Amino acid sequence: MCGVCGCGEGERRIDGRVPRLDTTRLVRIERDILAENNQHAAANRARLAALNTLALNLVSSPGSGKTSLLTATIGRLRGELPLAVIEGDQQTDNDAARIRETGVQAVQVNTGKGCHLDGHLVGHALDELTLEAGGILFIENVGNLVCPAAFDLGEAHKVVILSVTEGEDKPLKYPDMFYAADLMLLNKTDLLPYLDFDVQACMAYARRINPDIGIISLSARSGEGMDEWIQWLQRGRA
Amino acid sequence: MHELSLCRGILRTLERSAVDEGFERVLRVRLRIGPMAAVDERALRFSFEVAGRGGLAEGASLAIEPGEGNEMRIIDLEVS
Fold first, then answer.
1. Predicted TM-score of the model (pTM)
2. If interface means Cβ-Cβ distance under 8 Å, which residues of chain B face chain A?
3. Candidates B12, B38, B76; nearest CB to A150
4. Which residues of chain B, if any, have pLDDT below 50?
5. Between B1, B9, B76, which is nearest A33 by CB?
6. Chain B residue with the nearest C-alpha to that of A145
7. Do A31 and B12 touch (CB under 8 A)?
């Protein structure tokens, strides 16, 4: 028994308060905090598998060129594969409108104050799409290198897009996202002659965080490197 | 920023457990969070306090243990 307050034997304390052991108890949970999101994601994954659809979760900071990359990608693959897009943004229908101009079906999801898409939102977006079997679904997440890392949407891969107008140390600054992604696209390489961006250092930082990450340098604008990206998509589809 | 939506998920789990296990108050929640889970502990504590107001976990304490990788798990609850 503790000589200071009397705790230990019988849990009687010197201040006279007896802990209410009779009413306090421990309940074991052992449950993932994201269990609910993961259930939605698993349902999405099953739906996509039934349609033999390759789903990719595109993540990046705002302004990395996700939507321009998507329209360029659609330009290459349209007619070859069934394509669909889910666009996530806090506000506006602008990105979905840009995709629809290409003739590909797109659903805009506005997260309001939310900083990421989740499995539940994507499930409802899937309800609005008419997916043809054997295609690719691109899910463009909210521009944010932090929060979307944690939420499985039911995708086959997270693809992180980093533009060379950002710092080469982004993988070190936002490691969770680069750890979660299977592929990094280094975009806007047409601008490299005007910048001090160190491509080799950036790749080394990304591999330091995630040794298995694939890396493709490309420019959606000039088309440089797009062939490699399209081949990656076709391999994923096969 | 997403810590608030994580806390809503935690609270839903607590509410379901309260029905299954028959308790009214949660006094303490023990979590395990990995270094790659993209969770800021201060933001999580703040969000838990705000999201928990008026519910069964109002005033409950959070015990956060280091986990592995992107682990994010509720281990157990102290309830009454």
1. 0.83
2. 1-2, 5-6, 9-10, 12-13, 17, 21, 23, 27, 31, 36-39, 70, 72-80
3. B38
4. none
5. B9
6. B38
7. no
Task: Collect all residues of chain B within an 8 Å Cβ-Cβ radius of residue A177.
Answer: 38
Within 13 Å and on the Cβ side, how many CA atoms surround A222? 11
Q: Show the CA angle centred on residue A143, arms to residues A221 and A70, nearest 5°.
A: 35
**For residue B4, which of B36, B65, B52, B37 has the smallest C-alpha distance?**
B52
ipTM confidence? 0.89
Per the CB < 8 Å rule, is B77 touching A27? yes
Q: pLDDT tens for residues B21-40?
A: 999 999 999 999 998 888 89
The closest of B1, B2, B22, B37 to B77, measured between CA atoms, is B22
